[in-house]
Amino acid sequence: MPRPHTYARLYALAEGQDGYFSSYQAEKAGIPRMTLLRAAVAGVLERTSRGVYRLTHFPVISNNAHLWEAVLWPQVRKPYLGTLSHYTALQLHELSDVNPEATHITVPMALRSGRRTPPPLLVVHRADLESYDVTCVDGLPVTSIERTLLDIAQMHDPVALTDALRDARTRRLPIPRELERV
Questions:
Q1: SS3 8
Q2: Are residues 50 and 105 in the same domain?
Q3: How far apart are the C-alpha atoms of 32 and 29, rounded to whole Å?
């Protein structure tokens, strides 16, 4: 079991992320990996995927809490975060009735995960996103509406794209020029 001051630092890391944090964040906060392993064995933490942990007694407040695992997954030894994108972003922006089976994230092109395989039901896309391509929904990094629509267009899914564009037009949301005539 971690010492009270260590537990307080873990809680501070996890508080804004629905109870989740990465081993990279813990390391930057001065918490050694061995402490994380001991806390997991003691039941204070659960390891949700390689390099991602959740405080076991942290209350689940958001319906989207599980998405933090996907956002933090790229951040094992480097400060990269995933950005929720594609079908997951459609759902978060409420632009379609799509209910994706998998969580979609976009990571920078420079990120190399080596032999690390993504958790089940995580689809990883690679692109270098600009700051205007990313927004926040419930505190989570999500591709902007315009970027999401462009990503869906590249997925060659006419049903999802048509639904999303209809919903965006109904709500008078911005639509990329490339998609105005679709």
A1: helix
A2: no
A3: 9
